[in-house]
């Protein structure tokens, strides 16, 4: 991560960085600033483990996708109540263990945020999630990656 992005300690500073970076053709710095925003938000939420931080970053990344799609700030309105009821790890498990795939993966890919899919978080932290969630995540990511290679 670029030093200027590392020093950005507020969302507002990161948003300014994104704007300036895009104006100067520095998409790499803009993307890093987006990642920094996700990090700041997840840490502010009170996550206690790396897996929890990454899972919260995934929720915030999904909200970024929703907001871009809707043209206005949009919350993950079904996900937050689930997090409140089951905790972040439990919510991720429940989302991935559903028969239907989690929403937003392809939109995350389009925005360069595919590493924030719940399935990717699960595979980075297999010690935190169930064997069932790990297997589903492996299968989905494999299918998605083979589909993306064909496009």
Layout: helices, strands, pairs:
Blueprint (H helix, E strand, L loop, with lengths): L2 H5 L3 H13 L3 H18 L5 H21 L8 H18 L8 H6 L7 H7 L6 H20 L1
Uncertain runs are none
DSSP strand content: under 5%
Helix content: over 70%
The major β-sheet equals:
none
Mean residue pLDDT: 89
Calculate Rg over CA atoms. 16 Å
Number of helices: 8
Query: How many strands?
Result: 0
Could you give the order of the helices and strands?
HHHHHHHH
Structural shape: globular
Label the structural class.
Answer: mainly alpha
Distance between the termini: 30 Å
**Whole-number tally of structural domains:** 2
Task: Report on this structure.
- The protein contains eight helices and no strands.
- The protein has 151 residues and is mostly helical.
- It folds into two domains: 1-44, no CATH class; 50-150, no CATH class.
- α2 runs antiparallel to α3, α3 crosses α4 (50-70) and α4 runs antiparallel to α7.
- It is globular.
- The mean pLDDT is 89.
């Amino acid at each position: 991560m670029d030093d200027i992005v590392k020093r950005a300690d507020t969302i507002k500073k990161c948003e300014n960085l994104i704007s300036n970076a895009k104006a100067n053709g520095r998409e790499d710095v803009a993307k890093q600033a987006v990642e920094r925003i996700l990090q700041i938000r997840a840490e502010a939420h009170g996550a206690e483990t790396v897996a929890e931080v990454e899972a919260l970053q995934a929720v915030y990344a999904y909200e970024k996708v929703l907001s871009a799609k809707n043209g206005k700030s949009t919350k993950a309105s079904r996900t937050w109540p689930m997090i409140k009821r089951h905790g972040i790890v439990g919510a991720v498990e429940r989302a991935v263990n559903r028969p239907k795939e989690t929403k937003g993966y392809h939109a995350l890919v389009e925005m360069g945020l595919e590493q924030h899919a719940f399935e990717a978080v699960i595979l980075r932290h297999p010690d935190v999630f169930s064997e069932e969630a790990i297997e589903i995540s492996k299968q989905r990511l494999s299918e998605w990656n083979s589909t993306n290679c064909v496009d």
